[in-house]
Amino acid sequence: MKYCIFFVVLCAFACSGNKYPEVPERYHTLLNEALSKAGDNAVELNKALDSCDARYKEGVAFLIAYMPERDLKELKAGFLINNVEYAYKARERFSWAKALPDSIFLNEVLPYVSLNENREEWRPDFYGRFSSYVANCQTIWEAIDSVNRNIRDEVRVDYNTKREKPDQSPYESMRQGMASCSGLSILLTDAFRAVGIPARVAGTPNWHDNRGNHNWCEVWVDGQWYFTEYYPNALNKAWFFADAGKAVKGDEQHAIYASSFKPADTYFPLVWDENIRYVHAENVTDRYVDLYKAYESTIKADGRHIPVKVMMFRTEQCMQNSDDRMAANVDVFCGREQMGGGRTAGSTQDMNDALEFLLEKNKTYTFKYTDEKGREKLADVKVKEEPLTVKLYMQ
């Protein structure tokens, strides 16, 4: 009798088989859950799992296991297989990609999307476009710099508030030749990923002074994340650095987030659609605050920078007391390079409360703002050896 029972159990096990051959077991439950949500499109997702190269099955499984429900119901097998094959092609070709931990490759190189943008098959095209720029690079640092320096001329997209929408996909931005900071960040992230550089979109829903949102890009090198932008300066150096250093971790609107394909500790707040919760994110505020504190200590000690305060008044004749001040957004440039930005204190704030920048001595800076009639105004100021207060006027 016991032999009969053993035979029945053995047959049952044999007939059940492995539903996901060559896929690591840790994905099996996640795949079952994902495929049940996919409805009729489960056929396409199973096709992708079944027909992709055995070397890439974990990549396909990872994407299906963690993709948003909208993608489970829409994405086709060909789209997924193409994306995965070109991601692994970059990993096999470039030394920096070969050296990546699997966890970083899967979550920061392999994904086909950053936020909620339209899903497009950009990877084969971007692999062809940007491989030529990094082909002779010996290190990931060189590759990052090469993509950063060449992306604008390659895709012909510039920042412009007249773009159709903030969350544009790569080809939407390339068709128009313009994008928001979010669209530019998506473009840059995809370009990095196309050549095996781990990248993600980061940003804040609102700066500490309620000046509005901003998004940028982060790249992973040797175990650390660094920030950069579509218009490059250097890693961990950007006009918004001082603002990022004042972010507030516990305040959803004033914190800094980094996007993630797989679930993380929170979601990425999208200012253009606050109802979306499926874009995963890490709260990375502490890293930016700590980085800026260290930077600020360094430049205060170097003897080459001084504090420059900026105050905005209605007219040159009205600047006697706090009531005469106006709140306005001001950006500061040195030549073509933006050094920072902020919002001046208004009439209800303490007279000692002023927008402040740490600027290098003996250089000329341009302060740019918009007056009450919407006209752009520029004020050139020579910063010398002593702390300075710059007074600007709305009229």
TrEMBL record:
Protein name: Transglutaminase-like domain-containing protein
Lineage top rank: taxon: Bacteria
Alphabetized Pfam families for the sequence: Transglut_core
Domain Transglutaminase-like: 173-232
Source lineage: Bacteria, Pseudomonadati, Bacteroidota, Bacteroidia, Bacteroidales
Organism: Odoribacter laneus YIT 12061
Cited InterPro entries: Papain-like_cys_pep_sf, Transglutaminase-like
